[in-house]
Amino acid sequence: MKKVSLIVVAAGASARMRQPGSHVRKPFLKLRGKPILFRALEAFLGLKEIGEVCLAVHPDDLSLIREKLWGELARLGVSAIVAGGERRQDSVANALAACNDKYDYVAIHDAARPLVSRSSIKAVFASAFEHGAAILAVPVADTVKKGTGGTHGEPRGSGDANWEQRGTGRNL
Question: Alpha-carbon distance 29 to 41, whole Å?
């Protein structure tokens, strides 16, 4: 059976979602009583394709993770925790360096996307196993316009040829 190293990225500054004066980053905000990070990990829990889970967190959150959350994260399948980098791709690279190279594929998921369905995850994995790579995307529902220099632009249609990439399966 083909196996996947799952990288979950939770290293951003959460600048757009923080309450004024709050130091709580998005992965630690509560969703139905649990941190969003835990909800995102639960979506992958028990999938036979997952060989390991490597978590990239904001460097300022490392001590919180190790001192208070490690037990729950280990129960959710996390096998390695690394400090994230300056940019998302740096965080992914740090996590990738911690992954075991015995696994066939790498899946990258954003910890701030906890509502991904198991059926979507399995579909992305199946497509990657068949084609070598896959992303999760849905047809665009909104009208998209193409414009230049602040002009109104021309309609590009809605969904017919445009796809929106979703949080799981990026770079799978």
Answer: 14
